Amino acid sequence: MSEDKGAIQTPLKPNGEALPPPQKSNISKKLSRRKRSVRAAKAAVKNQKPRVRSVRPYPAGPFEETLELALAIQKFAAGERVRRLTLLRQMEKSPSSSTTKQLITNSGKYGLTVGSYSAEYLAMTELGRAATSEVDPRTKLSAQFKLAIENIMPFNTLYESYKNKKLPTRDVLRDALAEADVPSDLLGECVDTFLVNAKFLGLMQTIAGSEMVVPIEQVLEELQGTKMPILSPVPRVPKKSGAAASSSDGASQIHWTKVCFYISPIGEEGSLERKHADLFLSSLVEPALAELGLVVVRADKISSGGLITAQVIEHIMRAGLVVVDLSFHNPNAFYEMALRHATKRPVIQISRKEDELPFDVGQVRTVVIDTTDIYALVPKLETYKAEIATHARAAMSDPESGVGNPLTAFFPGFEVSIPKEK
Questions:
Q1: pTM for the complete prediction?
Q2: Which domains can be identified in the chain, with CATH numbers?
């Protein structure tokens, strides 16, 4: 038989046995595994379902804050149609700011104004004019009720369900919205916004030791013969968000965006200040922020070792949110709040009703809590928690919408550089 010269010759050992086939190198094996991993990752991405964003069937902010836009149209344009850019310039707001865009969107959803954040002109609706102009107080409040509650389906559902009834817990209110087409992940926000709107309109009243949802007719009747105060919106100053930071302390790592530092008068063990701080922390601040995934830290609860003053300042500067309790006019609380103001990052003010705030910080929106007696406090706990949660939710979703302060108002170019952690 003739030899086939074109055939591949099998290498032989010296004794004539065939050599085993060559094995793949380690590098070849690694490349093969990497190719399989890349193909698997591409297939997973291809098969991944697109994330569906929850549709919010109510405005993404309280009615009182949204009034700022309509009031500005009344002030600068006598309630008439106005060019959007001209109005925003008068309000000292950036047209491209996400906070400004959200304000205009919310105003439209409440029915106060017509015109989107990209429209050339903005104009007030008839109800918007009635809700912001100096007319009969009852007409004004009636228009505000229609815009803030009655015309917003989920809010009106809660109002009609609990009108003339004792206000239940927030969990029960969430359950009441089960058939109101509110996505499950937005139920908490919806309830909180309703409670804040209802309080603003005077629908939340303490009767026989319980907080009740009173009908609008009763509030309108009580207004007869009284003069409605002129609404003055709190000036908002655009803020730059701080970079999310994290630090290592031994084996633990702090995710600062999930930390809320609670500035409060603490006092000695057993003192009135300590009892106050513990009550506000456990009954208001912590439960209000729990559903937002925020861990509340107070100075005396910092567990890591080190110099306490340095740790307090680090929490003030780096925390994703700060809640400051200005009750008792504690000097340390005011000092620490000033440090936070310098960072231009979100801060929420709360205070006892009996402690009148100084002018400088009294102009900033504050959650005022009536601690006159237990019969005034307990019935309103759910409403107070809803207010705190609403402010926190707005601040965390858009840090640039954080509460303005005297420093940023008068020196908007002021900058503080927070060094990155090593």
A1: 0.72
A2: 63-223 (no CATH), 246-410 (3.40.50.450)
